[in-house]
User: What shape does this take?
Amino acid sequence: MITGNRVATRLWQVLGNAVLLLVIFLTVMPYVYMVSASFKPGEELFSIPVQLFPDSLYLGNYDLLFGKTNFVRWFFNSVFIGVSRMVLAVLISLMAGYAFAKFDFRFKNALFIMLLATLTLPIYVLIVPLYSMMVTFGWTDSYIALILPLAAQAIGVFLSRQYLLSIPDEILDSARVDGAGEWGIFWRIIMPLSQPVIAVMGILFFTASWNDYIWPLVVLTKDQMYTVSLGLPTLVGPYSQEYGAVMAGSFLSAVPIMIIFLIMQRRFIEGITQGAVKG
Amino acid sequence: MQPQLDEAGQAGARKTPPRGATSKRRWGGGRRSAVAPYLFLLPFFAIYCAFLLYPTFSALWLSFQKAVALDTPSFIGLDNYVRLVQDERYLHALRNTTVYALASVFILSPLALAVALAIRSFLVPSVNLKSFYRISLFLPFVTSLVVIALMFSLVFNKDFGLLNSFFRSVGLPELNWLGSERLAMVSIVLVGIWTYLGVNSLYFLAGLQNIPHELNEAAAIDGANRRKTFLYVTLPLLRPTILFVVIQATIFSYQLFEIPFLLTNGGPSDATLFLSPYLYEVGFSQFDRGYAAAIGYSMAIISIFLTVIQLLLYRRFNR
Assistant: This one.
């Protein structure tokens, strides 16, 4: 009977892993196809049946991407916007989270509930007036329109507060006794202690900015101000069918996030799944 | 994620030079200041009020107005909302989006649970294999939806796409994935499943890891088989996670923009018109700002409704 169980267990293992591998295969396949298509000349890309691997490494798509489009500029824009928005969002979230975790003040609960209420507010609710504001300020086609308005994300305050609650008050009090100012305590004690939550927020905010599409679509009109996400789809249109170049650009635009993900995957997954456990 | 009093923190604390009475004027050094919390809140809430709260309320006011392009807006009360329930295209978009949301709940979520169980259970003995699965499954979630839409526009291409090429090679009929009214929605659901299966299974995995092993073992000792353990031990304990996944999936389904916008552009003949691309069309192509604001508020109401349900159910489960 024990041996019978063992055989059954083995069978389940093989079967389960086979199903999982199939799921992984289906997940990875489109990426392989994308990378392979980026190294194919047009006629090979449109040939039937589809060859998964190109005959030879054709670099024409990359030439076209770098030479004839603004891709390099888009890439720079995305990096600049992503880093700026991330730094700003992390700093203000951590400061606000610190206030909620370690201070008592009037309207604390009211403010917190207000943040809770807007946590899942879709941007579509406010996008029309927000766009009008950008027009009024003369901020369309500017970096500031992409950095400042979306920097205040309630989720950052929640993550920071949650994390900072577990830092013992005694450390802060002893610093106060030593005469440290409040800003000094934040800068020299809270910031260094918060590295894990800073990393989680940094990843979240940078990825969100890098992948953002609707807001750049609304506020950007000049080609040289485009982000990568906004620029790539414009390469396939009624006047050009540069699928190879689009795939090359898609591949290159996915690389930075994938590298960050692979280096910091524990933090990444932790940051994303935290909400599921804590609810 | 526990903060550790590492060297950096301790050293940081010690580096702060003891200050005398002179520093007490700066930010209330040496004692708890009443102003300090407000100063810490200020930068966040300044941006939050200016670019989130103000436009949110301004949109509410706008939704009661007839405001087209640069014409002077005029107050029309609830007319924009009345127009919503009479607008064929809006109702169509609402229906399409709801179909997608239902698919997320009833197809995607159970699949994700199955994958999580497979990774979690005895099926995957090796730790390395487990983290390999984890990384690969997570990849689509960190890929931008724009890239995903572009990738799948090629995969689903009826003439030279990967899928039809595969169908031909195994002798199945080739299908017009994105161009036929019946299949376009199916294609979008498939892309949705492909994109979110991994992250949802990781949510479930995190939930499963919170269930103590002893409970499963106790059930096994009491003679429960695997199916019974799953139904009467695992599933009830997983309820908060299931709820979280389902509500998240629903909320994000109603906000989906890039995939229908870039993959099918709502077509063919509005078969894949979703709410957010419709709002974009009304607000930024037809410049009917008042009506677009009303569409936005209808989406907010859906989202708030779902969030409230989540909180209420969550409270009940945790009691």
